[in-house]
TrEMBL record:
The gene is LOC102583649. Belongs to the drug/metabolite transporter (DMT) superfamily. Plant drug/metabolite exporter (P-DME) (TC 2.A.7.4) family. The keyword Ribonucleoprotein does not apply. The chain crosses the membrane at residues 9-29, 41-64, 76-98, 104-124, 136-156, 176-196, 208-229, 241-260, 272-291, 297-316. This is WAT1-related protein. GO terms for molecular function: transmembrane transporter activity. It comes from Solanum tuberosum.
Amino acid sequence: MKGSSWKEMLMPSVGMIFAIIAIVISMIISKIAMSKGLSSFIIVVYSNAIATLILFPPSIFIFITRSRRRPLTFSVFWRILLLALIGYFGQICDYVGISYSSPTLATAMLNLIPGFTFILAITFRMEVINWKSWSSYAKVFGTFVLIGGAFVLTFYKGPPIINQHLTSTFSSQQNWILGGVILACESMSASLWYIIQASILKIYQEEMIIVCLYSFFVTIISALISLLVERNPNAWMIYPDIRLIAILYSGIVGIAFRSCMTTWCLKKTDPLFVSMFKPFAIVFALLIGTFCFRDVFYLGSLVGSVTTVIGFYGVMWGKTQEKYYEGNNLETLAENNVPLLQNEA
């Protein structure tokens, strides 16, 4: 197989790894901030407002310079509004789920996203399964292996390897089951978010403007709902401590950077490619917990991490094989001067 297919995947892969690291750190900081009294509804309002302010100047410049070539139509506008509604639901489920459980469970539940996305992508014909092709088998089984590795990380401990005599920072949590159910809803909304975002990018490819409008709409929606939910004025007060750090990090890195990076990766690849990086979040969460918070590192964590990497490689191999054969078919058509529609007929 030519190396060009792997090169096409390299930059989106690096981008998604940075996006996943941003998610994990945001979860940990937000959990600590919410344990100090920060409301999950308030953090969504402030963080999206910060993201909107950051993205607004470059978005205006891009809109002015490229509006004639790529006009922002009503069709794109209402799709972004729908994306914001789903995104707001997902953000609230994320923060509420973490407040009821822990960042470790939150990252573990992300392993549901590749499965949900795979089903939705097939339903909306964004992914094609050809059971006569090894690449399709690689994608299907690689996805299930990747998900299985994340479940091993979650439910199998085994003997401790590192920090044997210490206890986990987030070991005592309440309402664990309720938090898991809420986080499962967040995973479903994230999968739907990828599908809708990919459909938007097909008709409008200015990812900076899309994310800016998305953050703006989420800010408006969350502010209206938070005014009804949070009646206590003190809940809106921000103090110069971990709560302020959580809001700033969530707005700058967790939303502005991560959303732009994820949207760019969606533009370069597809929803399945982006979603299959989610189970890596639990690997990063375990590493951060082990070396920063002195959590116990178990044998199950090692086995699950290795399994996740194997599944990831399987899906990557399937995707690159498809791109390779697709590129070869296009080259063959060009060399033979055969129109594409005629060849398909």
